[in-house]
Model the fold of this input.
Amino acid sequence: MLLSNNGAVLLAATTGIAAVQAITLEVTNDDSIRSAASTIAYGMMTYYTGNQTGKEPGLLPAPYYWWEAGAMWGGMVEYWHYTRDNSYNDVVAQAILAQESPTDDFMMPEEADQLGNDDQVFWGLTAMTAAERSFPLPSSANVTYIQLAKGVFNDMAGPRWNTSTCNGGLQWQFNPNNTGFYYKSSIANGGFFQLAARLARYTGNSTYSDWAEKTYDWMARIGLLDSNYYVYDGTDDSINCTAIDHDQWSYNAGTMLLGTAVLANISSPNSTSIWATRAQGILDGAQEIFFSPYPNATNVMFEFMCEEASTCDNDQFSFKAYLGRWMVAATQMLPSLKPQAMDLVTSSAQAAAASCSGMNASVCGTKWYVGGWDGTKGLGQQMTALDTIQALLVNGTEPPLVVPGS
Ligand SMILES: *[C@@H]1O[C@H](CO)[C@@H](O)[C@H](O)[C@H]1NC(C)=O
Ligand SMILES: *[C@@H]1O[C@H](CO)[C@@H](O)[C@H](O)[C@H]1NC(C)=O
Ligand SMILES: *[C@@H]1O[C@H](CO)[C@@H](O)[C@H](O)[C@H]1NC(C)=O
Ligand SMILES: *[C@@H]1O[C@H](CO)[C@@H](O)[C@H](O)[C@H]1NC(C)=O
Ligand SMILES: *[C@@H]1O[C@H](CO)[C@@H](O)[C@H](O)[C@H]1NC(C)=O
Ligand SMILES: *[C@@H]1O[C@H](CO)[C@@H](O)[C@H](O)[C@H]1NC(C)=O
Ligand SMILES: *[C@@H]1O[C@H](CO)[C@@H](O)[C@H](O)[C@H]1NC(C)=O
Ligand SMILES: *[C@@H]1O[C@H](CO)[C@@H](O)[C@H](O)[C@H]1NC(C)=O
Ligand SMILES: *[C@@H]1O[C@H](CO)[C@@H](O)[C@H](O)[C@H]1NC(C)=O
Ligand SMILES: *[C@@H]1O[C@H](CO)[C@@H](O)[C@H](O)[C@H]1NC(C)=O
Ligand SMILES: *[C@@H]1O[C@H](CO)[C@@H](O)[C@H](O)[C@H]1NC(C)=O
Done:
């Protein structure tokens, strides 16, 4: 495969495939945004086979892990919320509820060997989104979305909050058989932090905000967040968290950005609170690390650790989806973030749309900064483009629901 100097992708003649017209996206035209999102969602849903006869609803086929399915359904709930296209709602609700588990907390026994705190929290955050968006609940459901989100919270706020080392924190894996049992990761703790913050806002119950604050404080004390508000990957509890893995992944910043913005929203009537300062700091940090890889790609999002070196794995291909999704959600919680966040998301959405020109316009690429399709395709590529583009519709949409006392 060759990249031409104008960024269009020319495939080697032997493949017999030519680059095609990209998705057209006018970023200030709601119909254009809806149409782009619909094309990309269609491409994304071609990866889903769980609703076919004999397959298990909710799951994606290999090589995609259980967690990513949970994360994808969150993007599809947002798809309906932003576009009001309900074509996939039945499939999405069936998928979420099929993984509810006997204990109503997404603790699926058959996923035990790949089910860590981060995996479970992605499903919990999806259930939380479904509750906040009043996503239609099938009449056959025996549980509500908010009950599922609370089920996940209750697991993590129990004995899994492990004070025997590092004075607290969640391990990445809670199953001693799994690699990562001795690692306290930002995605596990940051996911829990965000879930707790959103439960606090939704219910008005301060037990949740107390946990959110405790988790943030622990992460900052251990050094998973620094004075630049960079969010680092994790730390080793077998050495009492005395060393930090300084890798930076966009989804870690995303979890912390929305969580801090939610706490700003519920803790202060204006944007001067400590949580607003933190949210602004995390946005600034994310802008420095995850945007503008080259002078020719100002404000275009990229996955700092792996994208330019072409070493992203299937999980990592999807990470930008969560930064895009949560950055925009944060603007509704803390409007002072809006001009900066929407500039970043708008430029990224434009570049993402240009990348959707693979075998056809419903096939998107990874490296948005090349100005076209980069020759890669996959579920993560669809998710990142969808989450980033559909969020441009945020102006016309309701903020997340609150149900005080629930
Ligand atoms: C959303 O509203 C802001 C003003 O609050 C405006 O600058 C921006 O262009 C709007 N975005 C879209 C996509 O309509
Ligand atoms: C599965 O869902 C897709 C939408 O993604 C739909 O097109 C298809 O008809 C569904 N298949 C079955 C068997 O229900
Ligand atoms: C709901 O049904 C599932 C099986 O479909 C079961 O595992 C779960 O325990 C049930 N939950 C409640 C609250 O009845
Ligand atoms: C807490 O962490 C320690 C050290 O990693 C571990 O030995 C212990 O099993 C953990 N406790 C729980 C409940 O996971
Ligand atoms: C482990 O780290 C925690 C938190 O940083 C600290 O409070 C504790 O004293 C340390 N324990 C040991 C045995 O060094
Ligand atoms: C860990 O592995 C052992 C041995 O295979 C098994 O008996 C046990 O149930 C596993 N524990 C969990 C929590 O999956
Ligand atoms: C707040 O949430 C906690 C944790 O679920 C629960 O134990 C407590 O009863 C709730 N408080 C109120 C007033 O609902
Ligand atoms: C903003 O809120 C803080 C307390 O949260 C208060 O001290 C300050 O006076 C408020 N500022 C404005 C401009 O309302
Ligand atoms: C909290 O969120 C609501 C809903 O988006 C918004 O109207 C309000 O301005 C926000 N409050 C603060 C302090 O940012
Ligand atoms: C687009 O191309 C992909 C990959 O070859 C294929 O699976 C999909 O069916 C195509 N979509 C359309 C609308 O032609
Ligand atoms: C921008 O520059 C980078 C690095 O030289 C290059 O890989 C990329 O293709 C360029 N993008 C465009 C749109 O020309």
